[in-house]
Design goal:
mainly beta, 39% strand, single chain, 20 strands, binds beta-L-arabinofuranose, four-stranded antiparallel β-sheet
Length: 316
């Protein structure tokens, strides 16, 4: 009897853990964050992430990773496909990236920087960040820095989201700065910004970072980690707004930052995000990419998403 109980316990534990899909199995000891999911013409899911160095200081990060999957259960690691070593104008802060497909090319947009942030004497800070753009014939690279510098130097910019609309126009969103919520309309050759548009956010302009914009049934969704922590969103009938605040997608978890993307795969909407977890590393907690199914109500609003251990392993 004792043996039977132990066997059951072991079996249930194995069953549970083998179904546990969060964090995603992207690779042993890889500390991934800031997931940007895209489905390209081959139908596979591609996930671009930043990479944490364990015990890092102030998000000093050096390279980006890309993974692909045909079923969202198993992932192929395509390695460190782009890093600050590929740039002559920045050497640190390889933060939350994004990618897009346009003109038969894949574009990778990435925030990078130089200098240091002095938290004790902020006036001594030399840290600067801007957005670069690289191009490739393949979603996994090799990517080449297109302009040998940032798209602009002032104001400071990070966390780009590059959204290509159905008419082929590309829009680059970055976190609001100095109370200004701006979208950069890209030139057709993607080498410069054609125009900056200040957006009307309907009177609600909280602190935020990591914007992610997508379109569904003709409606544009501007989603963000509000206060850098809980995921919330606006909607609009235009990529330039005006936007209407719609509220919560995912609650914050303690005082940890979050960063996400929302993408449709084989008819099902997916939310990628990261979570700070203690998985036995030297300096816990560390960031790990996770995913959940995401659902819409009939009126187009998004249902709240809860964090789970099973993630995408249980089919909807
Ligand atoms: O990964 C570095 C920074 O932390 C990202 O750029 C932010 O969105 C936050 O996740």
């Amino acid at each position: 009897m004792k043996f039977l109980i132990s066997a059951c316990v072991i079996f249930s534990f194995t069953a549970l853990t083998s179904h546990a899909q969060n964090p995603l199995k992207l690779g042993d000891k890889l500390l991934t964050a800031d997931p940007s999911g895209h489905v390209w013409a081959d139908g596979k899911m591609y996930l671009y992430t930043s990479l944490d160095e364990e015990c890092q200081k102030d998000f000093w990060m050096k390279e980006w990773r890309v993974f692909s999957s045909e079923d969202l259960q198993t992932w192929k690691d395509h390695g460190p496909f782009f890093s600050v070593k590929d740039l002559k104008w920045a050497d640190n802060y390889a933060w939350a990236p994004d990618a897009a497909y346009k003109n038969g090319k894949y574009y990778f947009v990435f925030p990078v920087g130089t200098g240091h942030k002095d938290r004790v004497n902020p006036e001594k800070s030399t840290k600067w960040m801007g957005i670069g753009i690289a191009e490739s014939d393949s979603p996994t690279g090799p990517f080449k820095d297109m302009i040998g510098g940032p798209l602009w130097r002032e104001p400071y910019a990070n966390d780009p989201c590059l959204f290509v609309d159905d008419d082929g126009k590309a829009y680059l969103y970055v976190p609001a700065r100095n109370g200004k919520w701006v979208v950069a309309e890209m030139a057709d050759d993607m080498r410069s910004v054609k125009a900056f548009h200040e957006m009307d956010m309907g009177g609600y302009t909280p602190k935020m970072e990591g914007p992610w914009v997508f379109k569904r049934n003709g409606l544009y969704y501007y989603t963000m980690p509000e206060n850098n922590r809980k995921l919330t969103y606006y909607t609009s009938t235009s990529p330039k707004g005006p936007w209407k605040y719609r509220g919560l997608i995912m609650e914050q978890e303690g005082e940890s930052n979050n960063h996400h993307s929302i993408v449709q795969f084989k008819g099902q909407w997916i939310l990628f995000y990261h979570r700070w977890l203690d998985l036995g590393t030297k300096c816990p907690p560390q960031r790990h990419v996770c995913a959940e199914y995401l659902y819409f109500n009939d009126d187009g609003t998004i249902r709240e998403v809860k964090r789970t251990d099973a993630g995408l392993s249980v089919k909807p």
